[in-house]
Amino acid sequence: MADRIMPMHAGRFRFGISELDELVTERRGLVPEGPWSAAIIGPDGTGKSILAMHVASDFIRSYREADIFPRVVYVSTDLSLSQAKSTWNAFGLSRPELRRDVLTWAYERFYSADKIASEIETKIKQSLDARSRRAIKLKAVSPNDDKDLAKLLGAQSGNTVWFLDLQKETAGDDWNFINHLLGLFESERQSKTPNLLIIDAIEGLEAFIGDIDTFGESRTRRSRVAQLVRNCVRSDTNVLFVVERQSDSKREPEQFIADYVFVCSTQVETDYIKRTIAVEKFRGAWHS
Residue 179, class by beta-carbon neighbours within 10 Å (0-12 exposed, 13-18 middle, 19+ buried)? Predict the structure, then answer.
């Protein structure tokens, strides 16, 4: 990695949605170096998982411009693999480079002469053909299969988001398993592979495991999250929490711990629903 020219946005927190990134991150100055922690918080149905998948897709895109393939693990306690794949394909997250190109093509095709439009359409088709071999895929990984974990720990994971479906299969103490996984990442630090861990949703770990850890001790969610974030720092792993919020008056532990906090909400206005994203916290950046 040291011998390669890193893309400007590699490793920075981004949603991979150009208009949203320009408003949320690009106007807030340089993001500090080192692994970041973020939380997307909101009630059910506000698009949290969709945003988390965008982050995963863009994280790989930002690095592979320099032929670097990061390790991305999506831990799900909410979505099944089939549901996640449906969303992944619907938003074109397998080929994030083409998202803006297609919009530009549609605009210019509408406002340009037929000849220019035809040339643009040909160029887009060629781009699709060239990049089809570089599609980012969601692949299932089992917490109880050593061969799967060996693939996940490979220095070159390829264009892959490893999907850990804890709704379908549990490792027993899933909190402990995730910390163990981060410990394996730490042992692989010499490979210089960038890491991203997404947990969707954090409440699922509580529901499956409860308040008692492997050693029979009572643990609060805040202490568990703080431990996980410390392990992320040690292993140079960026982490994104998806958090289900039931009450606006209650502050979740992730709001205190994460570097970046985004709050999703819905507002009913007459005969339609408006979804909003509020930037609640963005450490180390301009706020003017």
Answer: middle
